[in-house]
Inverse folding.
């Protein structure tokens, strides 16, 4: 188990494009950290910098407290699982698994027992003699996982390992990776663009955008307390509702008016009045919209029901207030007809306020 | 394609194959005829009396075995140099991200597309000044320089499509960058390297211009020049039979080589064309 620390890490390419800039991150010993973000956000670059496959332009990487920058990839004691499996096509499954051990001059009998152990753990014992091209995608990725596991490295890196697999196989292998992590309690960094994968796998998640980290936190923190507009938009399916609002400070309270709709909200800002922005974005999750009732201390109103989608376990209700479109999500079945009118409310503690110009969260506290 | 279309295609392909191979068959036939029969009008398609005297002549009265050996030395050595240098160059260029990459590739293309005669005089004068004329080594260097272009372009194309993850995996598994190249990339590039090597070998084997100009010593001549130097008893006699025999003997090694490696050549030429 190793602690992995990235300090002011930056990578700029000769072509002028920026991979990552000024990245700070600490992955705790035995932690499964997920780097998530859209393509081009720098998550794979970060992973390759940790592995030593790319040389950072600036900054430092520490593995178990030791500076790793001058250490070549082969001596960093890191194993990586790639999206395209990266199995040696000219070697059998058994030889692929044994390869990293052979390179480290491990005794033959030990190689054999560790190959068998890894093969059993991943259920690939029957394919040991086969070549990678004779295996399905899922089987190949299992072999790739095995090749990483067998080394017992300080840090495991996963570069979108499940992207090439179909949905059911993805779920299955995701569970296996989680199981492997629980069993080995190894330090793992897992890159994905899939928010579901990030939420279900990560003990903590680092959300990346345009080469920087937007927020680091547990899945619950990321979902419940998004620190930026980007994080709020990225997580959640269906996504968060957003309203463009105008804010005014009035006798120590913040009065917010959202678009032409006349609901206003009074919430005390923790920030000083002078720094309160005029335009802000208000967000709330579809499941936080309460239908048919109006509670106190809430953003509330009446809306037209434009569409109802019954999904079985949950129902999506599309609401319209003038030109404004909102989505509400309720558990189970709800008896509403399209075209009808309905009261709705969102409790103030479920509202997320963001500065529209910087995209940063505005921290508020409940009225006392 | 229907059955009729299939038959027509076969007839056309057979005709085309015959059209291409006819000169070779004619050469083989001529090599087995006596000089009188070669000169006879009308010409005979097949030799009336099969004779091997042309073959014995070129090996007994002329040092044709020496020419073939020289050809082999030059082709093998220049191909080896070109393969090693070309593969290294191709790999490094394939991994480059510089804006100069396209220019560098064009530079490698030049010796392959410019007429060889353009280089003849400068190379001759340069080689004269450093005493590399009249030596197989000089010829090997020139051939290698031209072959690098072929090897580079074939292998660069392969390396560019080579999965980078595989090299990265090898580097994490315990190889240096060079180690990964030698132990993982090159073994997988073998069919492509064989194809590039064979093409280079054949070019070298057939090369005439530089072989004629740079080497004048008879014992250092290669087969192509040897054939052109074959002459009869008088200026009016052209030893067609011997020339044909020499051509057959010169072509044979290349034909055998291609036959031996034909599967590898096909897989090398189509490497990367279809995603596995």
């Amino acid at each position: 188990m190793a602690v992995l620390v990235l300090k002011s890490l930056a990578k700029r390419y000769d072509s002028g494009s920026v991979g990552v800039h000024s990245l700070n991150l600490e992955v705790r010993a035995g932690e499964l950290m997920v780097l998530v973000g859209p393509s081009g956000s720098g998550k794979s670059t970060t992973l390759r910098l940790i592995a030593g496959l790319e040389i950072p332009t600036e900054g430092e990487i520490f593995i178990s407290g030791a500076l790793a920058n001058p250490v070549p990839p082969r001596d960093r004691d890191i194993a990586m699982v790639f999206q395209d499996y990266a199995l040696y096509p000219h070697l059998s499954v058994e030889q692929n698994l044994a390869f990293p051990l052979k390179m480290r001059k491990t005794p033959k009998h030990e190689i054999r027992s560790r190959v068998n152990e890894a093969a059993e753990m991943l259920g690939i014992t029957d394919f040991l003699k086969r070549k990678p091209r004779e295996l399905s995608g899922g089987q190949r990725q299992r072999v790739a996982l095995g090749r990483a596991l067998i080394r017992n490295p300080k840090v495991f890196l996963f570069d979108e390992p499940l992207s090439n697999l179909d949905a059911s196989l993805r779920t299955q292998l995701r569970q296996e990776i989680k199981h492997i992590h629980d069993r080995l309690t190894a330090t793992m960094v897992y890159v994905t663009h899939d928010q579901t994968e990030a939420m279900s796998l990560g003990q903590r998640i680092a959300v990346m955008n345009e080469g920087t980290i937007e927020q680091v936190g547990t899945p619950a923190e990321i979902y419940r307390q998004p620190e930026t507009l980007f994080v709020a938009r990225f997580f959640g399916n269906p996504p968060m509702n957003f309203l463009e609002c105008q804010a005014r400070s009035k006798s120590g309270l913040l009065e917010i008016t959202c678009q032409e709709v006349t609901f206003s909200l009074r919430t005390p800002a923790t920030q000083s009045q002078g720094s309160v922005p005029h335009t802000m974005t208000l967000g709330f999750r579809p499941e936080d919209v309460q239908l048919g009732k109006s509670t106190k201390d809430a953003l509330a109103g009446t809306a037209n029901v434009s569409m109802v989608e019954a999904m079985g376990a949950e129902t999506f209700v599309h609401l319209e207030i003038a030109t404004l479109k909102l989505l509400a999500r309720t558990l189970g079945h709800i008896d509403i007809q399209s075209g009808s009118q309905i009261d709705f409310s969102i409790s103030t503690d479920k509202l997320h306020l963001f500065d529209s110009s910087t995209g940063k969260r505005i921290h508020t506290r409940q009225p006392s | 394609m229907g059955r009729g279309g299939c038959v027509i295609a076969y007839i056309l392909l057979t005709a085309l194959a015959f059209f291409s191979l006819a000169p070779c068959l004619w050469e083989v036939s001529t090599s087995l005829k006596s000089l009188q029969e070669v000169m006879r009008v009308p010409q005979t398609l097949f030799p009336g009396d099969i004779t091997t005297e042309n073959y014995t002549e070129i090996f007994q009265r002329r040092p044709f075995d020496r020419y073939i050996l020289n050809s082999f030395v030059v082709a093998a050595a220049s191909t080896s140099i070109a393969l090693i240098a070309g593969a290294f160059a191709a790999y490094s260029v394939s991994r480059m991200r510089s804006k100069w990459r396209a220019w560098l590739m064009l530079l490698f293309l030049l010796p392959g597309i410019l007429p060889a005669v353009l280089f003849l005089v400068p190379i001759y004068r340069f080689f004269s000044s450093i005493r590399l004329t009249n030596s197989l080594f000089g010829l090997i260097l020139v051939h290698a320089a031209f072959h690098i272009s072929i090897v580079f372009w074939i292998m660069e194309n392969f390396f560019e499509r080579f999965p980078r993850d595989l090299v990265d995996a090898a580097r994490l598994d315990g190889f240096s960058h060079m180690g990964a190249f030698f132990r993982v990339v090159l073994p997988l590039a073998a069919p492509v390297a064989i194809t590039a090597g064979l093409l280079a070998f054949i070019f070298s084997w057939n090369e005439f211009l530089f072989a004629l100009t740079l080497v004048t010593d008879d014992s250092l001549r290669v087969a192509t020049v040897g054939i052109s130097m074959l002459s009869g008893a008088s200026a009016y006699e052209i030893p067609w039979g011997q020339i044909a025999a020499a051509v057959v003997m010169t072509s044979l090694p290349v034909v055998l080589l291609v036959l031996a490696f034909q599967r590898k050549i096909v897989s090398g030429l189509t490497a990367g064309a279809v995603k596995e």
